[in-house]
Write a structure and sequence with these properties.
The chain is built from 5 helices and 5 strands, in the order βαββββαααα. The protein is of the alpha+beta class. The chain has a 5-stranded antiparallel sheet, with helices on both faces.
Length: 182
């Protein structure tokens, strides 16, 4: 449906997509050159991301894929102490003339901006445990949670868990953040 309407997709592939994951995992990634690298320093750590990109195999069990990718993320402390190493496989519909390896890496990175919002809503606000089942109730509550997170970030708070606790201690604080009180 996405491709039928002229759109494109860039999807990470997890192990729960058995045949697709296995097909991607079996590709010759070790023999594939790194196509793009980026490094970020912040939050007391150094994060290096690399991406390998290959043309999609013709027998891939997923339609409309032009490129496949492997992103590796290595996180170390500023002193060089390893913290984590994660690999992610994925598929993309645009060919290399529409999406370079740097583009694919950026799309993947921007996707995490969306995922982190869902993670906060799921863990801090326990959204998945909500028992609201009215017609528009879940959307309204999700909007209010997004408003709370966005308002706290606009107020300069980066630790949303602590900021939520801070805002809950006095009923006037949320209204002050939103500019609804003097």
């Amino acid at each position: 449906m996405i491709r039928a309407r002229g759109g494109h997709f860039v999807f990470p592939v997890k192990e729960n997509r058995g045949a697709l994951f296995d097909a991607l995992d079996a590709l010759p990634w070790r023999d594939t050159e790194i196509a793009h690298t980026s490094t970020e320093v912040g939050h007391g750590r150094i994060t290096t991301r690399t991406i390998h990109v290959l043309p999609a195999p013709p027998d891939l069990p997923f339609p409309h894929v032009s490129q496949v990718w492997l992103i590796e993320r290595h996180v170390t402390g500023r002193d060089g102490t390893p913290i984590s190493a994660v690999a992610q496989l994925g598929v993309a519909s645009p060919d290399d003339s529409l999406a370079t390896p740097a583009d694919l890496a950026r799309y993947n990175r921007e996707h995490w901006g969306i995922e982190v919002l869902h993670w906060i809503r799921d863990t801090l606000y326990r959204e998945d445990h909500s028992r609201v089942r009215t017609r528009s109730g879940p959307r309204v509550l999700a909007s209010l949670r997004n408003l709370a997170i966005g308002a706290l970030r606009l107020a300069g708070r980066t630790d949303i868990t602590e900021a939520t606790r801070w805002a809950c201690r006095y009923m006037s604080r949320p209204f002050t953040i939103l500019g609804l009180s003097s």
